[in-house]
Specification:
Elements (H helix, E strand, L loop, with lengths): L12 E2 L2 H6 L7 H12 L5 E4 H14 L4 H13 L5 E2 L8
Parallel strand pairs: 1-2, 2-3
Helix pairs in contact: 3-4
């Protein structure tokens, strides 16, 4: 398990499901959410994106918002294919 000291590269925090979900469908915040995610994925912002957050965004978007499953899967798969250093497989309780 990782410790807070090992995660100091993510100085600004941890991304939540909501930001990803907002970027998946037309709404007033979509453009800002996409810009914010782009900065994170390019590592201009030091924010961790737990891989479980991407999975959670899929479930919220498809189950609760009823967005098309294949379209959401395509968008999220493209996002994951970037292999950004922002993607983080483990979030320690100390960091959360």
């Amino acid at each position: 398990m990782s410790t807070l000291r090992e995660n100091l590269v993510y100085q600004e925090g941890v991304l939540d499901v909501g930001i990803i979900v907002v970027a998946l469908f037309d709404n007033p915040l979509k453009i800002e959410a996409i810009k914010f995610l782009a900065d994170i994925l390019r590592f201009r912002r030091k924010i961790a994106i737990p891989v479980t957050t991407v999975i959670g965004a899929y479930h919220v978007a498809t189950r609760y918002l009823k967005l098309p499953r294949l379209e959401v899967k395509r968008i999220l798969a493209e996002m994951l294919s970037i292999r950004s250093p922002a993607f983080y497989p483990h979030v320690a309780p100390d960091l959360a």
